[in-house]
Design a protein that fits this description.
Layout: H1 8-18, H2 23-33, H3 36-53, H4 58-65, H5 69-81, H6 85-102
Length: 103
């Protein structure tokens, strides 16, 4: 994906996100910066990425998330040909979940 959209404001936003340390920090920041609908949409896309990574089919993902198959297709393209953002997050979440199970 092209990185030509980056400018000082977007970099400042990303730096701000990196300062968040707790779940409460994240909730408060995203509640302030996004609408409930935007947060919900992002969460459904991440859920779709997880389900695609688990080899679920589009119709199953659409039923579970309420996303259109076009959006699921876009998420799938990002998983396969994107910047590895979804893959990094999914891998790190899986590591956290495994560590919790071992504890």
């Amino acid at each position: 994906m092209a990185k030509d959209y980056m400018d000082e404001r977007i970099e400042y936003l990303f730096r701000g996100i990196l300062t968040l340390k707790t779940m409460e920090d994240c909730r408060a920041f995203f509640e302030d910066i996004c609408t409930v609908k935007e947060i919900s949409e992002m969460s459904r896309r991440l859920d779709a990425a997880r389900m695609l990574d688990d080899n679920k089919i589009y119709n199953e993902i659409a039923d579970a998330t309420g996303l259109s198959t076009a959006t699921i297709s876009r998420v799938n393209r990002c998983l396969k040909y994107g910047s590895d953002g979804y893959s990094r997050v999914l891998s790190r979440l899986a590591e956290e979940d495994a560590a919790k199970e071992d504890a």
